[in-house]
Design brief:
Elements: H1 3-16, H2 23-30, H3 34-46, E1 52-54, E2 57-59, E3 69-76, H4 82-91, E4 95-103, E5 107-115, H5 118-131, E6 143-150, H6 153-165
Antiparallel strand pairs: 1-2, 3-6, 4-5, 4-6
Helix pairs in contact: 1-3, 2-3, 4-5
Amino acid sequence: MEAVERRERILHLLKQRTKPVTGAEIANHFGVSRQVIVQDIALLRAAGNEIIATPQGYMLPQREKSDNVRKVIACCHNRDQIMDELGIVVDLGGKALDVIVEHPLYGEIRGNLMIASRRDLNLFVSQLADTQAQPLAILTDGVHLHTIEAPNLEVMQEIISALREAGILVDQET
C-alpha cells in the first residue's frame, strides 16, 4: 500500500471512530511501525486535517452540537494530587479536555487530555508513571489551567466547589 493511500485510510478510520485510537492500534491495522503512523499523522496535520493527540490515542474533534457547558479553571497542586484533581472532575460527571500552562518563552502550551472517566484517568496516571514524564504544571510551580466540560451548569458548579474545597482551585475572583 502506498503512503498516500494509507494516510487516506487512516483519516477514514479516525472518522469512523468516536473514541481515540492508539498509534499502535493503527500501526497494527496497516502493518507498519508506530513511528510510520506518527509521521503519517504529522503529514495529515500539515495538510490541514485537525487530528487531536490525547493520552488515549488519536481522534478527530467531535463536531456534534452539544448543550454541554465549558469553563477554563485555574488550579495549583503538586504531582501527587493529579489523581485527586482529575478524579473530582470525572466523579462528578465532568470531562477534563486539556491542560494549559503559560511558558515565559513559548507562551501558551496546551496538552489534550480528554479524560472523561476513572478508566481514562487511571490510564493517564499509569502512562505518567511508566514514561517517567513530568506534567506540564512542573514548568509553572504547579499552576495550570484546565478546560472542563460538564453536562450542565449545576454539575459545573459542583466540580468547581469540590475543587475549591480540596484546595486545588485557584480562585479567580479579585
